[in-house]
Amino acid sequence: MNASPASSTPPAPVLTVAPGPHIFSGSLTTRRMMVDVLLGLLPLVAVAVWQFRLLALMQIGIGVAAALAAEWLFQRMRGRAATLSDGSAAVTGLILALSLPATAPWYVAAVGSFAAIGLAKVVFGGVGQNLFNPAMVGRAFAMIAFPAAMGASAYVVATSPVDALTHATPLTALKMANEVTALGPLFLGTTNGSIGETSALAAILGGLYLCLRRTASWEIPAGAILSVVVAAGLPALFRDGSGWSVAHDLSAGAFLFGAFFIATDPVSSPLTPKGKWIFGAVFGLLVLLIRRLSGYPEGVMFAILIVNALVPLINRVSIPVPVGGPVPERK
Asked: What's this model's pTM, rounded to 2 decimal places?
């Protein structure tokens, strides 16, 4: 029996139009990446609880709970199903909480989390659409709304049972009194500061885990660290004989926390390898310049938001050359 002409016609190809990359691992889901970030943050959480006790638990609990509540509320307001299971809201709330002082009132973490989810994420379309890192937008909002609770004086409580809170943060002590904190406390985390920034060791351990899991692009923290090493090592600009070294610049404050966990946000960072190096280098340089030349002792939050705004330009100037050479322009 002969086949009919219709049955012998090959099926038409199915074309799918979508942005690259077109070859990817199905296991690299948003949920898996967010779980990796939560696991990577565990060393910082452990040091925060060890150093600041119940105050750290309060900030973390309120920050995460408020971020989940904000995600659910704003998605329902838009008529969409709340997708709390992907973990992105929990990561935003945790990073925001770790960037706050231990003494901040409960409403600072709550308002900051709502601002992070509402202003930096939902209004742009949700997961994967934000232009700026949501946690840093939330922290910036909290700093503007509650300056007394977020300023340098809020980190010090003279009568606190937590010993670290009776001293100024290392960067504030350097800027205000030219006091240099030893590298040992900066590395281990026995100093004052935002609850997630005190231990360079914890940030390195968690950050290396993210890089090895390929959840974070290693080029960004590498570019940031290299930038700080080069810029802080210029004798004519940055060495003043005070005993503050390049290792201090790397270990103090939120630099390593920001380089590994905030700057590496895949949504608000560049796409190309070259762009990631540029992004990290500019971030590190901005942190150093803000610390040295402004009235603020720390510059991670401002540096993150500035380089987030530069991402479209960095993507444009770092487009790789196609195989076979540049595409000729039409005349």
From this structure: 0.87
